[in-house]
Every structure is written in C-alpha cells, then in structure tokens.
Amino acid sequence: MMRQAGRYLPEYRAVREQAGGFLNLCFTPELAAEVTLQPIRRFGLDAAILFSDILVIPHALGQSVKFLAGEGPQLAPVVDSKNIEGLTRGLNLSVLEPVFEAIRLIRPALPAEVVFLGFCGAPWTVATYMVAGEGTPDQAPARVMAYRERELFSRLIDTLVDASIDYLVAQLEAGVDAVQVFDTWAGVLPPKEFEAWCVEPMRRIVAGVRQQVPSARIIGFPRGAGTMLPQYIERTGVDAVGLDWAIDRDFARDQVQSRLPVQGNLDPLVLLAGGEALEREVDTVLSAFSNGPFVFNLGHGILPETPINHVEQMLKRVRGR
C-alpha cells in the first residue's frame, strides 16, 4: 500500500515520537528501518516500501526543509535565479547516506519473498513544493513560474532530474529491488505542460538510471494523468505504472494494462469507509485488472485515520480470491 508505514499504525506513531521529528525519523537509519518493517510484520505484505520522503532531495540540494507538526512541510521558496544557482551544485549524497544505511539494514531483515521498493518524487511534483515553499491546493506558484519564466523553471527541473538519477541509482546499489517515482501533482497540468514537465523529465530519469543500472525496474505514478497515460508509458520507458482511483478502469485495462503491468487503484476513502462498500470496491478492482499483469494497491496514500481492521478486511478480501 502506498504510504503503508504511516500515522494509522500505533507502532509507527511511537517510533516517530521517539525520533522527535519527521526528518530525524527519515535520517536515523535504525528508526527508518524499523518503520519500514512494521507493516511487513503486521500484515505480511508482498513488498516493503522504504520509509523516507520526497523532500529529502531538496534538503540534500541545500534548500531549507522543515516539517512542522500539524502544518506539513515548510521550505525556503525558490523564486529566482539566485535561489536556483544555490541548488545547481548538485545532490549531496553524503546528506542522504542515512537513507542508504537504512536500506542496508532493511535488506537482510526482509523475508526472501518480500520485494523491497525504493522511491523518489518526480521533478515536477518536488518542484511544486520547492517553488511554493509548502503544499498548495492547485500548485499555482510552480505553474505560474513555468509559464512566466520557462528557462528558469527548466533549470530547476534539470537539477531535479540529475538529482533523482543519482538518488535512485544509489538506492538500487544499496539494495532495493525496484524504484517508484511519484508524480503526485501531474494531473494539474494541461497536455503540453504535462509533456514538458512530467513526461520528458521522467524519460530522462529512466534513461539515466538504466545507463548506470541496466537491469533497473522503474515504476511511474503520474497521478491524475488520465487519458495521457498511454503517452506517458510510451515515451518514458517505465516498467509498470500506478493508477489513481479516479481513472476509468475500462480505459486503463484496454489502453495501459495491455502494454505493461499496472498497480492500484482502490480509493483510499473507501478503505477508510470499510464495510460492504470496501468489499464491493475490492471486488471491482480485482475484476477489472486480474486478467493481466497487476499489483493490487491503493490509488493514493493511505489516510492517517484509516482503521487498522479495515486494512485487515481489505487484505483478507484480496487474498481470499
């Protein structure tokens, strides 16, 4: 499940309190390893997902990144060429060494049959936080910069492409089996901008990672891409693609799953609701995709208030078919 180690688990909340802050949790290898393993122990899931955050890349590029309780991430906004010049020195991998150490701790602790997934945020999505300095409802600050100052915004995206390649390669070398690239805010862009800021950067990331790790398996998740998904998979070269909960399943089966494996796409809110609605939707997802290459998953991250017994109900339903 996306965001499977999170605030809905009491054991996660206990470790986060011990860490004393979110970034401390991300950068303390023993604690990051522990919360990565917690959902595997509790639920026996098929894959472990490295515990980290998409904003460790701007942090390792030198941007000020803070996580304030109850307020979400706060960054020093990137607003001009001077800000970007400060980032273009490149990714400081030594800052991210605790992440790689966590991977090295997790790998031998996993059962042999459990896949280990690493990840990063896609350049467009990471840039939306870097430009705004926080999460925004419509990603307007980054969209406006991309329209008004295209060359400047291109430099930021270029920096993030290079950083993403270095980060993903280092994760693969440390021991993850595959990596996923999350473009959470891809769906806010019209087609031309989607091609420029989502598709082309992802194509470069896939090519750059495979240049160094030819066997790399890479999953893309451009949330909200909808009918632009076939273009995304054809141009980027990803091995599999995540489906959000809003996509038309007939379209996804016929136009996407016919070309490569898909994962998804249960609505996180139906998991929150539970009961008969959850049973029906699990069955619908399985019926839509189980005749092709498919990983059952959520269509976005699990919500913090999700009852644990609803997760257990979902897993029982999936495994019972």
Write the layout of secondary structure elements.
Layout: H1 10-19, H2 22-26, H3 29-43, E1 47-49, H4 56-60, E2 65-68, E3 72-75, H5 81-85, H6 97-109, E4 115-121, H7 123-132, H8 140-148, H9 150-174, E5 178-183, H10 191-212, E6 218-222, H11 229-236, E7 240-242, H12 249-257, E8 262-266, H13 268-273, H14 275-289, E9 294-298, H15 308-319
Parallel strand pairs: 1-4, 4-5, 5-6, 6-7, 7-8, 8-9
Antiparallel strand pairs: 2-3
Helix pairs in contact: 1-3, 3-6, 7-8, 7-9, 8-9, 9-10, 10-11, 14-15
- How far the N terminus sits from the C terminus, by CA atoms, comes to 18 Å
- Using the 3D structure, state the CATH architecture: Alpha-Beta Barrel
Uncertain residue ranges: none
Q: In total, how many domains does the architecture comprise?
A: 1
In helices, the fraction of residues equals 40-55%
Using the coordinates shown, work out and report the CATH topology. Answer: TIM Barrel
**Pattern of helices and strands:** HHHEHEEHHEHHHEHEHEHEHHEH
Main beta sheet strand tally, sense and closure = 7 strands, parallel
Whole-number mean pLDDT: 96
Shape: globular
Notes on the protein architecture:
It is a single chain. The chain is an alpha/beta fold and 321 residues long. The protein has one domain: TIM Barrel (Alpha-Beta Barrel), CATH 3.20.20. Helix content is 53%, strand content 13%. The chain has 15 helices and nine strands. Strand 7 (240-242), helix 12 and strand 8 form a beta-alpha-beta unit. The protein starts with 9 loop residues before the first helix and ends with a helix. The model has no long low-confidence stretch (mean pLDDT 96).
